[in-house]
């Protein structure tokens, strides 16, 4: 890690996809009257050139003009003095990205995971994966309901920032909150991350229900019972059950499970209409399709009942068709709510 002095007013966003670009816009606006230095690190020089000529990131956020003052670069050295580092690459790239940037990230910088998922091979939380690479145990996480396009357009959005201590969570949340982007502080990194990973799986289930024409009552049942599953895994992994009722659980599940802006929902709709799992995602990132099987395996290993997550995983793996999955869910023994 870099020993250089920190610039507390500087924010580096790693990954110039939809969410990274939106967070860079929010971070710039969060500065208020104090000029902020916000660096958006892309891995593609062509994207940097496009931004310089058009003032947009047309690949990631089509039609949205980005504010002046944003520094978009493909030069990793540019992040060296950043006081806050937001890792906005997909879940499975978080560890490798942290390893690559280790020499550049300042030792005292706040590092924030901004992806929703679990490590595919192990089921570990992304804060653990990144922490291992950076030799730290104080990696924070940002999660909750917020579409990148809404955030970048300046529509009102609220999300959760969870960190190892209440002081750190409050400091980062305050630093990144602005006129239209509001962060709530939490110390439940387990609950917040499991909420983000599992709501994607449950949004796929909502999509399957919609695509297969199973009705809105089924979707409401799925959201409630999905939340119950989420709560069981959160508790078993040492998180706080109440967290699932907040922005990172219920809030994000309602958003992702009902809005056609969601890639996870659209993927589920394609599956529900009979599409093959391999083709349903197209070229889009569908985090829930990666998280479903690892969450299902984790639940099974812990002896936790997560029938919806298990059904989604089995449908994606081709082990279950939708009719069989519905029959299996509806014929389970009657239990207490
Ligand atoms: N898009 C949203 O509305 C939104 C909102 C909240 C959270 N998220 C989360 O943010 C994460 C990123 O999503 P996104 O929507 O920005 O995706 P995206 O596909 O728009 O962008 C991903 C970016 O990461 C880069 N990237 C991909 N693989 C990489 C690798 N191996 N190494 C380095 N860079 C790599 C890509 O070039 C791209 O710029 C996901 O975990 C998602 O769940 C997204
Ligand atoms: O497009 P999705 O399904 O990845 O959802 C984006 C965000 O996670 C919504 O909060």
TrEMBL record:
<feature type="active site" description="Proton acceptor">
    <location>
        <position position="199"/>
    </location>
</feature>
<keyword id="KW-0594">Phospholipid biosynthesis</keyword>
<dbReference type="InterPro" id="IPR011128">
    <property type="entry name" value="G3P_DH_NAD-dep_N"/>
</dbReference>
<feature type="binding site">
    <location>
        <position position="116"/>
    </location>
    <ligand>
        <name>NADPH</name>
    </ligand>
</feature>
<comment type="similarity">
    <text>Belongs to the NAD-dependent glycerol-3-phosphate dehydrogenase family.</text>
</comment>
<dbReference type="Pfam" id="PF07479">
    <property type="entry name" value="NAD_Gly3P_dh_C"/>
</dbReference>
<keyword id="KW-0444">Lipid biosynthesis</keyword>
<keyword id="KW-0547">Nucleotide-binding</keyword>
<dbReference type="Pfam" id="PF01210">
    <property type="entry name" value="NAD_Gly3P_dh_N"/>
</dbReference>
<keyword id="KW-0520">NAD</keyword>
<feature type="binding site">
    <location>
        <position position="144"/>
    </location>
    <ligand>
        <name>sn-glycerol 3-phosphate</name>
    </ligand>
</feature>
<dbReference type="InterPro" id="IPR008927">
    <property type="entry name" value="6-PGluconate_DH-like_C_sf"/>
</dbReference>
<dbReference type="InterPro" id="IPR006168">
    <property type="entry name" value="G3P_DH_NAD-dep"/>
</dbReference>
<feature type="binding site">
    <location>
        <position position="19"/>
    </location>
    <ligand>
        <name>NADPH</name>
    </ligand>
</feature>
<feature type="binding site">
    <location>
        <position position="199"/>
    </location>
    <ligand>
        <name>sn-glycerol 3-phosphate</name>
    </ligand>
</feature>
<feature type="binding site">
    <location>
        <position position="116"/>
    </location>
    <ligand>
        <name>sn-glycerol 3-phosphate</name>
    </ligand>
</feature>
<feature type="binding site">
    <location>
        <position position="287"/>
    </location>
    <ligand>
        <name>NADPH</name>
    </ligand>
</feature>
<feature type="binding site">
    <location>
        <position position="252"/>
    </location>
    <ligand>
        <name>sn-glycerol 3-phosphate</name>
    </ligand>
</feature>
<feature type="binding site">
    <location>
        <position position="263"/>
    </location>
    <ligand>
        <name>NADPH</name>
    </ligand>
</feature>
<feature type="binding site">
    <location>
        <position position="263"/>
    </location>
    <ligand>
        <name>sn-glycerol 3-phosphate</name>
    </ligand>
</feature>
<feature type="binding site">
    <location>
        <position position="44"/>
    </location>
    <ligand>
        <name>NADPH</name>
    </ligand>
</feature>
<comment type="function">
    <text>Catalyzes the reduction of the glycolytic intermediate dihydroxyacetone phosphate (DHAP) to sn-glycerol 3-phosphate (G3P), the key precursor for phospholipid synthesis.</text>
</comment>
<keyword id="KW-0963">Cytoplasm</keyword>
<feature type="binding site">
    <location>
        <position position="43"/>
    </location>
    <ligand>
        <name>NADPH</name>
    </ligand>
</feature>
<feature type="binding site">
    <location>
        <position position="285"/>
    </location>
    <ligand>
        <name>NADPH</name>
    </ligand>
</feature>
<dbReference type="InterPro" id="IPR006109">
    <property type="entry name" value="G3P_DH_NAD-dep_C"/>
</dbReference>
<keyword id="KW-0443">Lipid metabolism</keyword>
<feature type="domain" description="Glycerol-3-phosphate dehydrogenase NAD-dependent C-terminal">
    <location>
        <begin position="188"/>
        <end position="326"/>
    </location>
</feature>
<feature type="binding site">
    <location>
        <position position="264"/>
    </location>
    <ligand>
        <name>sn-glycerol 3-phosphate</name>
    </ligand>
</feature>
<keyword id="KW-1208">Phospholipid metabolism</keyword>
<dbReference type="InterPro" id="IPR013328">
    <property type="entry name" value="6PGD_dom2"/>
</dbReference>
<keyword id="KW-0560">Oxidoreductase</keyword>
<dbReference type="InterPro" id="IPR036291">
    <property type="entry name" value="NAD(P)-bd_dom_sf"/>
</dbReference>
<feature type="binding site">
    <location>
        <position position="262"/>
    </location>
    <ligand>
        <name>sn-glycerol 3-phosphate</name>
    </ligand>
</feature>
<feature type="binding site">
    <location>
        <position position="148"/>
    </location>
    <ligand>
        <name>NADPH</name>
    </ligand>
</feature>
<protein>
    <recommendedName>
        <fullName>Glycerol-3-phosphate dehydrogenase [NAD(P)+]</fullName>
        <ecNumber>1.1.1.94</ecNumber>
    </recommendedName>
</protein>
<keyword id="KW-0521">NADP</keyword>
<feature type="domain" description="Glycerol-3-phosphate dehydrogenase NAD-dependent N-terminal">
    <location>
        <begin position="11"/>
        <end position="167"/>
    </location>
</feature>
<comment type="pathway">
    <text>Membrane lipid metabolism; glycerophospholipid metabolism.</text>
</comment>
């Amino acid at each position: 890690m870099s020993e250089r002095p920190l610039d507390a007013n500087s924010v580096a966003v790693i990954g110039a996809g939809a969410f990274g670009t939106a967070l860079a816009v929010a971070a710039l606006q969060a500065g208020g009257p104090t000029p902020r230095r916000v660096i958006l690190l892309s891995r593609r020089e062509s994207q940097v050139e496009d931004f310089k000529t058009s003032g947009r990131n047309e690949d990631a956020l089509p039609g949205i003009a980005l504010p002046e003052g944003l520094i978009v670069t493909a030069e990793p050295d540019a992040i060296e003095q950043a006081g806050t580092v937001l890792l906005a690459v997909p879940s499975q790239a978080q560890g490798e990205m942290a390893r690559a940037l280790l020499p550049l990230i300042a030792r005292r910088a706040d590092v924030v995971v901004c992806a929703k998922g679990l490590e595919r091979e192990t089921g570990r939380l992304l804060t653990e994966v990144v922490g291992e690479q950076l030799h730290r145990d104080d990696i924070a996480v940002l999660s909750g309901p917020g579409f990148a396009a809404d955030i970048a357009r300046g529509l009102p959005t609220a999300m959760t920032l969870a960190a190892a201590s209440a002081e750190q969570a409050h400091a980062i949340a305050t630093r990144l909150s602005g006129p239209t982007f509001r962060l709530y502080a939490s110390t439940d990194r387990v609950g917040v991350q499991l909420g983000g990973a599992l709501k994607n799986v449950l949004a796929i289930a909502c999509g399957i229900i919609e695509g297969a024409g199973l009705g809105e009552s089924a979707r409401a049942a799925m959201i409630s019972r999905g939340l119950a599953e989420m709560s069981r895994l959160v508790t078993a992994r040492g998180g706080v059950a109440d967290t699932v009722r907040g922005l990172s659980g219920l809030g994000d599940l309602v958003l992702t499970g009902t809005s056609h802006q969601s890639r996870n929902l659209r993927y589920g709709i394609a599956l529900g209409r009979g599409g093959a799992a391999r083709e349903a995602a197209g070229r889009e990132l569908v985090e829930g399709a990666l998280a479903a099987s690892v969450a299902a395996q984790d639940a099974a290993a812990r002896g936790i009942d997560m029938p919806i997550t298990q059904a989604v995983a089995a449908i994606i793996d081709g082990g279950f068709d939708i009719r069989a999955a519905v029959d299996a869910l509806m014929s389970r023994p009657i239990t207490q709510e």
